């Protein structure tokens, strides 16, 4: 068997192990070790490369961005900033078509700029937005689908953990990836808003339990109003944090690591000011930060080891030759690659897809003249869609489990997220056809 054939068999083995339930890090280590041993015929070399990778894989100042941004996101979550953001958005948008749905998207957009994790957004806004939307006459399944659908903004709007992981795997600037995600992230948010308003007009029965009563309530000008001072007081913490982190990062005043440190410190000040860390919550936040960060760093070490095995097997170059021989244009390759990611998103989680595919696909994209920042945004967009597609759909299951309502089934939430998937596919196509949407600000 040729080295190339061994490489393809090992990739199939990796996917099979993950589908059988083996944790992705163990699967990557096992396949990488086995591949180096078989290809080189030297088990000692496989052990030595594992030892070198364990150190060199994350021995860089840049990797401090991961625990710092994770800590910032958890501190913001525990400080009820998400709830306050939604309350202000609700007050400002309650008389707009599908006002609370639009408010959920708006709040998720702002919240994403300081968390970077879709699952955190899904959990926070399920508790905050779904009960409020249901109380105002929205169908519970639609409310849950809106939260699940808009939560994916956390994976694209910087700072995003997926953008950080992609930047590490593809060896491109993390700060550059954050900048590249701005325009596509805003396109996605605007697309969600337009879609929600259009559906509420064309298919009101899909949105409201009683469309006529909901319309009367929307046009009702009575009821308590939040003062401008109250709204400003609720928004000041998150506005300052976004300005501090993203403003410093995009102006070049901070490196990504420094921005993470400043953001974590700012989030700590907000949490202390709001007295949100009592009752052992600070210890819980620190434990969660450690657990999440270590898990991500171990995954990156495993991915680096797997990537070295692929290089030894010559797989990226061989696949690149096949792509060129097949007559694929850069756009054709992007479309083919996106379809593969979308299919993988139905059975694997986001991080696993990145760890498996980026080491193979990024060198091919670069060889075809595709900007790796543009390629990264397409990758993350396609991966994000997998958060909403059955049977995996982790954002949908997060909303369903957090909601814990026997009257709202997983199937109903999946159905309610279909319009969001449609918008994401449209944005994916736009970004693929117009690279400047990702590279214009670089």
TrEMBL record:
All copies of domain TRAP C4-dicarboxylate transport system permease DctM subunit, residue ranges: 12-436
One Pfam family cited in the UniProt record for this chain: DctM
GO molecular function, one term: transmembrane transporter activity
Membrane topology of the entry: Multi-pass membrane protein
Regions crossing the membrane: 6-39, 60-82, 102-130, 142-169, 175-208, 229-253, 259-277, 289-307, 372-393, 413-434
GO cellular component: plasma membrane
Keywords noted in UniProt: Cell inner membrane, Cell membrane, Membrane, Transmembrane, Transmembrane helix, Transport
Subcellular location: Cell inner membrane
Family matches, as PANTHER family: C4-DICARBOXYLATE TRAP TRANSPORTER LARGE PERMEASE PROTEIN DCTM (PTHR33362:SF5), SIALIC ACID TRAP TRANSPORTER PERMEASE PROTEIN SIAT-RELATED (PTHR33362)
Family, as annotated: Belongs to the TRAP transporter large permease family.
Stated role: Part of the tripartite ATP-independent periplasmic (TRAP) transport system.
Subunit record text: The complex comprises the extracytoplasmic solute receptor protein and the two transmembrane proteins.
Protein's UniProt name: TRAP transporter large permease protein
